[in-house]
Design brief:
Blueprint: E1 5-8, E2 12-14, H1 18-27, E3 35-39, E4 43-46, H2 49-64, E5 68-71, H3 75-83, H4 116-146, H5 150-164, H6 168-180, H7 188-201
Parallel strand pairs: 1-3, 2-4, 3-5
Helix pairs in contact: 1-2, 4-5, 4-6, 5-6, 5-7
Length: 203
């Protein structure tokens, strides 16, 4: 952090609880801080909590009368911003700055009339967000069972889905059902793909 500028660099995922973490971080900034910039290039996933995250940042800027930015959006988070009608270069840009107005609503309230071509992508993103808890649980089970880290477990899940030709949420649900004995064993093609992926990623 410079003497008068705070640069924050979130990493990973913007999910439930992220707004509270940001609020705590902002409350601890020195009183002399006159500018707050977030570099979002390290964020690879967000659900609707990510929009609340932006609301917290915007509210803090207004309360303290300091400029705030959130730039560097890529991948899925950038698509979320675009689909809800926010400027993906900086959803907090003030009206008139660099000729791009900010929507009158807050990020959490943002809505936009989307052309039909985008409706399918919206539905895919919604399905991805809805499936996230199961995927995260399956990842945790793999970490516990095989002593691997979170990134390795994620790669195992994705590769298993790819090799078996099975949607990732279905693979996650099968692993959960098998580990907790709450359902049938995973299909043979999923078990075979999982075995290959485990052998490839684990020592």
């Amino acid at each position: 952090m410079d003497a008068d500028r705070a640069l924050l660099t979130p990493r990973g995922e913007l999910v439930h609880g992220c707004a509270d973490v940001l609020a705590g971080k902002l409350s601890r900034l020195p009183a002399r801080t006159v500018r707050i910039d977030l570099d979002m290039s390290g964020v690879r996933f967000m659900d609707t909590a990510g929009l609340r995250f932006l609301d917290v940042l915007r509210a803090h800027g207004r309360l303290r009368s300091v400029p705030v930015t959130a730039t560097g959006w890529t991948g899925q988070p950038r698509r979320i911003l675009t689909l809800v009608g926010l400027d993906p270069t900086d959803p907090l840009r003030p009206p008139g700055r660099e000729g791009t107005p900010t929507p009158a609503t807050t990020p959490a309230e943002a809505t936009v009339k989307r052309p039909p071509a985008r409706e399918e992508e919206v539905e895919r993103l919604r399905a991805s967000i809805a499936a996230r808890p199961a995927v995260d649980r399956a990842r945790g089970l793999l970490m516990t069972a095989h002593g691997c880290d979170s990134d390795t477990a994620w790669q195992i899940l994705r590769e298993t889905a790819h090799l078996s030709g099975t949607p990732l949420p279905t693979v996650a649900s099968a692993i959960i059902a098998d580990a907790t004995r709450t359902g049938p064993h995973p299909p043979q093609k999923v078990r075979d793909a999982l075995a290959v992926s485990l052998a490839r990623h684990l020592p």
